[in-house]
Amino acid sequence: MDDTTALAAEHLALARRDPHGRSAYLFLHDGPLRQSVIALTEGSSLEEHNTPPAASLHVLQGSVRITEGTADQDVAAGQIQRIPHLRHGVLALEDSVFILTAVTGTE
Fold it and tell me: For residues 21 and 90, is the Cβ–Cβ distance under 8 A?
């Protein structure tokens, strides 16, 4: 069993030391299911990328913006947002940690 509070603290500390302001760790991998903790410092981002068949983002602390052209979505601590089925990026509006849940395949 993983402690997401401890993972959040650990990876935010690592992100603050990283020159790109980010840290990530895949803590659950079960078939097509993946869960990762991702920490970003204020202003850092995950560049635009494709979406797996299904994904959600749950912000543990801070706030982030899911960027997808004209339909950006801000997500704050405690909120969960479905990841759109479009190319998108993630921008940290403040030092933030979130859990990315992704399903990488379907049967």
Answer: no
| pTM value surpassing 0.90 | yes
- 53-70 confidence digits (pLDDT tens): 899 999 999 999 999 877
Q: Report the 10 Å Cβ neighbour count for 94.
A: 14
How far, in Å, CA of 91 to CA of 59, rounded? 12
Predicted confidence (pLDDT) per residue in 28-46, tens digit: 999 999 999 999 999 999 9
Give me the half-sphere count of Cα atoms (radius 13 Å) on the Cβ side of residue 103: 9
Phi, psi of 40 (to 5 degrees): -130, 135
